[in-house]
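# step 3/5: fold
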Amino acid sequence: MLARAFWSWRAWLARCRRHPWAVRRWARHESEFNRLLAHRSTAIRDFFVIQVGACDGVMADPLHDWIKRANWRGILVEPQALEFERLKATYAQERHRLVFENVAIADMDGTCTLYRLDDAARTDDWERGRASLLPPYDAHRFIAETVPCITFDSLLRRHDVTRVDLLQIDAEGYDFEILKRVDFATLRPALIRYEHRHLRPKDKHACRKFLKRAGYRVLEMEFDTGAVLSSSETVGIASRAASGER
């Protein structure tokens, strides 16, 4: 029953993607988000990013070129051991301005179960990125591994982070759970981008409402959603960033 519901939902999404109006709207939103990102990257002297689910730093990664060319600082988080080693190799020349964390972001500090697609079950190279804290609907294709985990707050405390310019999340369906655990009373990233592709429809809608209540304008793209903090708050954060506060 669950599998039938999942594939019905995927079929409905596929039909929506073929609609020209939706395609134009997604493209417009992505262009606007990238424009705002470029503006902030240029305006902020010490741009700081946290990327949750960085994989190898290359595959389907919207931040790769930015990190390489724009001199960003930040924390890159990847729970899969092999992809984590590839991630460090990808950014070997940028290691002086990046921190690498081989952990999952969860609701506790300690260990948790990560469901990773079995190598033998992969049909394409991009499926290396299929790993989530959520039990998969096609569990027979996945391997359950125990990995270290920390909360988002613990990650911030570990590295004394008080300002984030961009929070990027690609957690294969666990994205909303991570966002719900961000304390927006103390930390308000100027920009957020998360993958909504694997969220259940009700969670996709709830996540947008959650961010709007937190003071963000939401820009839905084809596979991701961008969130932009209101202009008045962004100005205040930018002024603190200019003074070197992180």
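# step 4/5: annotate
The longest strand covers residues 142-150.
# step 5/5: archive (pending)
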